[in-house]
Amino acid sequence: MLRIRNLNAYYGKVHALKNVSLHLNRGEIVTLIGANGAGKTTLLNTLSSVIPGADGDIQLDGKPILGLAPDKVVSLGLSQVPEGRQVFNPLTVEENLELGAYLRYRAGGKRNEIAADMERMNLLFPRLKERRRQAAGTLSGGEQQMLAIGRALMARPRLLLLDEPSMGLAPLVVQEIFRVIQQLRAEEGTTILLVEQNARAALKIADRGYVLETGKVVLEGKAAELLENKDVQRAYLGHE
Ligand code: ATP
């Protein structure tokens, strides 16, 4: 579904991604782990085309997407849930979700289909349903994260990129977010690329994983194997 070959990204003279190659098969959950500054966010932002000047090859379902406008990439089925959630604070929950469907409205999408998807968000996130007229800025961190995921889903992505969805959240809320990620794959077959500091939890729900260090992929494998890997345990898993 997604194939990245020899991807390089730069911030001025900083070479932030160095010949990164990776792939995601349809319906997979793949996690990207790595220390602060390894380049995880840069990789997601390059996929979403919000960082200019990258080189290499990125194909989504066989179509090259590197260098396309960000809205075009979303239209082709790739949506990102950004680090730090970035919901629109003054707008209500409902308005934030509606904005996620903006490109569908613009393309003349069927209003009843969009309305059905709004209903689907109510089922997926019952806590948001209760708060649909509340300003997003007044939600808890966990609720904002769910809203950010819901907003991305309103674009009907086939590939969802999640940037540190568990950041700063209490353990029970993290469990809820990870449950939703699994549910999305199980019920809708959504392919998911999950960036996480919480490597253990991410590897537990992922099929495969990649380890990124200073802009390079240094290790890849089945999630179960990475969980058992001594280097991964030492660097990223800490102690149980
Ligand atoms: P974190 O978990 O801390 O978000 P990360 O793995 O997502 O880390 P990136 O944010 O992708 O890492 O950063 C990769 C490298 O690029 C780092 O060395 C960082 O300092 C650098 N970098 C990121 N954004 C910029 C920017 N806007 N300008 C210059 N350098 C940047």
From TrEMBL:
Keyword terms, alphabetized: Amino-acid transport, ATP-binding, Nucleotide-binding, Transport
Superkingdom, taxonomy of origin: Bacteria
One Pfam family it belongs to: ABC_tran
Domain annotation ABC transporter: ranges: 2-239
Gene Ontology annotations of biological process type: L-amino acid transport
Gene Ontology MF: a single term: ATP binding
InterPro entries per record: AAA+_ATPase, ABC_branched_ATPase_LivF/BraG, ABC_transporter-like_ATP-bd, ABC_transporter-like_CS, BCAA_Transport_ATP-bd_LivF, P-loop_NTPase
Family as reported in the entry's similarity comment: Belongs to the ABC transporter superfamily.
Official protein name in the record: ABC transporter ATP-binding protein
Organism annotation: Geomesophilobacter sediminis
